[in-house]
């Protein structure tokens, strides 16, 4: 029996059990099956588990709270149980170990990190001495689709907390995240007039041609120096090649590094109008994740974590990233540290993997954060 409470093989076995329950966001029954397993892991601990019923086609959310420290602002740990991989993907990407890599759907994003946070909490409970702050762990079911049913819960818990730790995966080489771009999504609806493309083209007003104008206007907003990206990722339109297209549609993703950029660009996109008489352009959408800008409190939290990592024997480097997370919802008002999960690569791919060598040091870092934040 090992005396090391952070023995890699034991933690990896726990991660495997979570990975082997597939949990695509659009399968609430499967997400809830995983939530059952996660909740059962708190039964023997000094903690309460609250289960919030899923809605709008999403699974349940779990809120676990330590029995101590709940009368004052404490530590909120944010994790998600859903993955982007469809049901049956585990047949293509079964859990397996090859050298320093362990593979499986969602193992890197983010079941590995979610499990590390749970394991570190178990160890805090076993330590005997209670840490200064209470610990609340929130597991949501819908992060991969923008957290539509959990956002209000995340924001409410975030406002109550003094610190927020997010178990999203580490970035290349184990980097931690101290800033993320804000994410906006838009739907573009264009309505023209149909006509026979051969005999009466002059009677038609092409929605597809107008969509081309809109796409050019959107593409012109890209500014890589500023860190602004606008991507038209989905387009649909028309019915037949010999019919002037009556309707066209597009879905747009925008990423912005600061709130000032969002305040400028969101109205600009919503204000795009038709350049063609007889064709209407209607754009709807909003900023669905605010930018996560590195605050003074967030910087101080990072410096504290960096010091703990040095004591544990590794260097913790921070990075700003373009991907959004639930940390975007808490960073505007609470010191937030993201990317505390496992190191690895291939999120959302057929080769998704965590690096086994990252398990113990990162579990120990979470444990030390639980012990030392005050």
From TrEMBL:
Coiled coil: none
Domain Peptidase M20 dimerisation: 178-269
Keywords assigned by UniProt, alphabetized: Hydrolase, Metal-binding, Zinc
Taxonomic superkingdom: Bacteria
PROSITE patterns cross-referenced by the UniProt entry: ARGE_DAPE_CPG2_1
Pfam family, one: Peptidase_M20
Co-factor(s): Zn(2+)
Keyword field contains Zinc-finger: no
InterPro entries to which the protein is assigned, alphabetical: ArgE/DapE_CS, Bact_exopeptidase_dim_dom, Pept_M20_glutamate_carboxypep, Peptidase_M20, Peptidase_M20_dimer, Peptidase_M20A
Protein's recorded name: M20 family metallopeptidase
Taxon lineage: Bacteria, Pseudomonadati, Pseudomonadota, Alphaproteobacteria, Hyphomicrobiales
């Amino acid at each position: 029996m090992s005396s090391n409470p952070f023995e890699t093989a034991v933690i990896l076995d726990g991660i495997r059990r979570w990975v082997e329950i597939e949990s695509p966001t659009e399968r609430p029954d499967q997400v809830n099956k995983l939530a059952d397993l996660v909740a059962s892991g708190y039964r023997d601990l000094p903690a309460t588990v609250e289960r919030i019923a899923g809605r709008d086609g999403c699974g349940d959310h779990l809120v676990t709270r330590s029995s101590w420290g709940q009368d004052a602002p404490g530590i909120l740990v944010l994790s998600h149980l859903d993955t982007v991989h469809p049901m049956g993907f585990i047949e293509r990407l079964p859990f397996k170990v090859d050298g320093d890599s362990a593979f499986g759907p969602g193992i890197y994003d983010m079941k590995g990190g979610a499990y590390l946070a749970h394991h570190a909490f178990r160890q805090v409970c076993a330590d005997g001495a209670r840490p200064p702050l209470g610990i609340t762990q929130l597991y949501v079911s819908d992060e991969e689709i923008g957290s539509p049913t959990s956002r209000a819960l995340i924001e409410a818990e975030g406002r109550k907390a003094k610190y927020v730790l997010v178990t999203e995966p580490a970035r290349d080489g184990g980097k931690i995240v101290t800033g993320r771009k804000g994410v906006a999504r838009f739907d573009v609806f264009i309505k023209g007039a149909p006509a026979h493309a051969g005999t009466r083209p002059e009677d038609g007003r092409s929605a597809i041609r107008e969509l081309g104008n809109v796409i050019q206007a959107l593409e012109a907003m890209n500014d890589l120096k500023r860190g602004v990206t606008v991507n038209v990722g989905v387009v649909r339109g028309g019915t037949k090649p010999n019919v002037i297209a009556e309707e066209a549609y597009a879905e747009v993703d925008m990423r912005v590094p600061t709130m000032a950029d969002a305040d400028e660009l969101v109205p600009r996109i919503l204000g795009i109008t038709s350049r063609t008489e007889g064709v209407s352009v209607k754009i709807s959408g909003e900023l669905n994740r605010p930018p996560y800008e590195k605050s003074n409190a967030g910087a101080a939290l990072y410096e504290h974590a960096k010091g703990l990592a040095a004591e544990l024997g590794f260097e913790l480097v921070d990075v700003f990233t373009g991907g959004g997370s639930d940390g975007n919802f808490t960073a505007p008002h609470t010191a937030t540290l993201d990317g505390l999960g496992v190191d690895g690569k291939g999120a959302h791919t057929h080769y998704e993997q965590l690096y086994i060598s990252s398990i113990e040091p990162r579990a120990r870092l979470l444990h030390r954060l639980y012990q030392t934040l005050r």
